[in-house]
C-alpha cells in the first residue's frame, strides 16, 4: 500500500498547502501554472475532508449554548511563515462579519452544517462628492476616510459536500460568513498568515445603504458595486479558542 494512504488527510493537506503557497513570494503568482496546478491538487484534497477526519462532531441537537460563550471559536492546527490552518466553529445563526485578508490567499472548506458566504473585491476609490448625503444614515465627516468602493462578486451556500471557497489577494478577498440552518464549522487556510507587523491586519466593514443614484451603483452579471465603511470589530462578534482534537500535523 502506498505510504501516502496511511498519512492522515489533514497532514497531506498541510504538506500540499505548504508546497502550494511557498512559491507565493511573486505578486504574479496567481497566473503561474505551477501554482494553479498545486492549488487544484490542494482543492481536491480539501474537497475530501470531513469533520470525522479531524475528530470533530456537530453539537448534539437540542443542546443550547450559553449566551456567555463566544459566537465563534477557533481551533489552531498549525502555522508557518507560509500559511496558517485551523477550524472555525460557528454557533447556530452566528456570523463572521465582513472582513478582509490583505495580500493573502485563502481556502475555506465546510466540515459540517451550512454557511452562506458573500464575497467582495475591493476597488479603487473614486472621488465621492456626494458622500455627505448619499447614504442612509448620512456619513459623519470623519467616516469619509473609511469609505471603500467594492464589488459584490458572489453569494453562495456551502456544505460538507461542497468544494472549497477560494479567495486571492485581488479576487473575493473580503467575505462575510453566516451559519444558516444551525451550527457550522469550516477548515480555514490562509497564506501567508495574518501579521499586523507585515501589513496583514484584519479589517472589518459594513455595507452602506445608498439613498440616491448620485453614487454609482451598477449591477451586471450578478456583480454589484457597493460602498463599504471600515468599522471597528463589531461588539457582538468575538472569537474564543478551543483545543484541536484531530491528528497531529507537522510541516
Ligand atoms: Fe476570512
UniProtKB/TrEMBL annotation:
A GO cellular-component term linked to this record: mitochondrion
Gene Ontology molecular-function annotations: metal ion binding; oxidoreductase activity, acting on single donors with incorporation of molecular oxygen, incorporation of two atoms of oxygen
This protein's UniProt keywords: Dioxygenase, Iron, Metal-binding, Oxidoreductase
Name this protein carries in UniProt: 2-aminoethanethiol (Cysteamine) dioxygenase a
Lineage: Eukaryota, Metazoa, Chordata, Craniata, Vertebrata
Amino acid at each position: 500500500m502506498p505510504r501516502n494512504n496511511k498519512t492522515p488527510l489533514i497532514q497531506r493537506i498541510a504538506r500540499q498547502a505548504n508546497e502550494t503557497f511557498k512559491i507565493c513570494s511573486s505578486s504574479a503568482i496567481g497566473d503561474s501554472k505551477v501554482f494553479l496546478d498545486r492549488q487544484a491538487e490542494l482543492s481536491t484534497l480539501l474537497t475530501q475532508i470531513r469533520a470525522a477526519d479531524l475528530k470533530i462532531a456537530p453539537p448534539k441537537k437540542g443542546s443550547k449554548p450559553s449566551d456567555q460563550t463566544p459566537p465563534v471559536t477557533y481551533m489552531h492546527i498549525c502555522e508557518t511563515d507560509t500559511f496558517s490552518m485551523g477550524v472555525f466553529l460557528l454557533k447556530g445563526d452566528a456570523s463572521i462579519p465582513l472582513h478582509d485578508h490583505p495580500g493573502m490567499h485563502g481556502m475555506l472548506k465546510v466540515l459540517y452544517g451550512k454557511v452562506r458566504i458573500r464575497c467582495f473585491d475591493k476597488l479603487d476609490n473614486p472621488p465621492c462628492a456626494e458622500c455627505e448625503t448619499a447614504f442612509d444614515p448620512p456619513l459623519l465627516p470623519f467616516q469619509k476616510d473609511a469609505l471603500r468602493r467594492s464589488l459584490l462578486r458572489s453569494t453562495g451556500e456551502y456544505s460538507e459536500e461542497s468544494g472549497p471557497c477560494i479567495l486571492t489577494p485581488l479576487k473575493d478577498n473580503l467575505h462575510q460568513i453566516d451559519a444558516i440552518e444551525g451550527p457550522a464549522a469550516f477548515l480555514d487556510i490562509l497564506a501567508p498568515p495574518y501579521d499586523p507587523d507585515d501589513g496583514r491586519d484584519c479589517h472589518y466593514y459594513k455595507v452602506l445603504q445608498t439613498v440616491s443614484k448620485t453614487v454609482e451603483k451598477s449591477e451586471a452579471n450578478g456583480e454589484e458595486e457597493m460602498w463599504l465603511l471600515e468599522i471597528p470589530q463589531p461588539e457582538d462578534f468575538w472569537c474564543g479558542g478551543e483545543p484541536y482534537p484531530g491528528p497531529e500535523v507537522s510541516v
